[in-house]
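This part of the workshop introduces the protein records we will be handling. Getting from the letters to the tokens is the skill we practise here. The record below serves as our worked example for the rest of this section.

…
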Amino acid sequence: MERLASLGRLSAGIAHEVRNPLTGVSLLLDELHDRLLSQPTDQALIRRALGEIERLEELVGELLNFAAHPQVTLEPGAIGEVLRDTLFLVKKQCQRAGVAVVEEVGENLPGLLLDARKLKQAFLNLFTNALDAMPQGGTLRVSADCLERQLRVIISDSGEGMPAERIPLIFEPFYTSKGEGTGLGLAITHNIVSEHGGRIEVESRLDHGSTFTLLFPLPGSA
């Protein structure tokens, strides 16, 4: 644990050091782009370079967020409200992708000690992954209910699914099968759920979709 903590601090330090020169290079390329009004081919190359810098800056930002690992602030709240707020954010994206949303979130769920902002981030990561798994459209199902003094949230998709050997790896930092992205989304989601005293279970089959089950202990159930 000590070595992992040291590695986290080292990663954060490196990320900070990388971010500063990236910002400088980006500003210089912007200036150069504006000076080459008569050279559209060169401007196109600069725009591509700026796009790659944006990707690096996104990676650095996520690395800093993961390394800093800010603690959640738990307050009484309604998980159903957080789920609905997060689904609202991806509503248009679902429509464009031809994904139908089936919501089965109870109205009278018990309250939970939660950090709404962090949980929204975790749910958004799971919804985004589900959409990525359904490039030809499909169905996203979101439900919440109570199960044996636990609050259960189930997020499932009808997408591409995963082979069994991939499932133990998906919460590892920087693991991704998409060929793009940082591979930190599910690792951050796992951390957020863990900090709420919960756990995540995953079921998936190739061509049959994936199901993520999040289990949170209710207050007084310990």
In short: Residues 75-217 form a domain with the Heat Shock Protein 90 fold (CATH 3.30.565.10). The helical segments are 2-35, 40-68, 79-97, 116-132, 185-195. DSSP finds five helices and seven strands in the chain.
